[in-house]
Amino acid sequence: MRLSESIDLHRVDPAAITVPTTVVAIAEDRLVPEASLIELTERLGGPATLRRLRSRFGHDAFLKEIAAIASVLREALA
Predict the structure, then answer these.
(1) Using 50, 70 and 90 to split pLDDT, how confident is the model at 4?
(2) pTM for this structure?
């Protein structure tokens, strides 16, 4: 319960993030809609890239789509 509460209470102004950032949106994610991630990307204070992926795993894609996530990470860190 405390973990959920701390996540709900945590607030960061996206404009305060000035480092290059890659945001990953999963089209089928119903917990974090793509529209929210588009808005986040637009509000970030530094250079930002939005990568859109598709996955039948929805929100769990970051755990299940190892090759796709690895590709995004390699590109972001290059």
Answers:
(1) confident
(2) 0.82
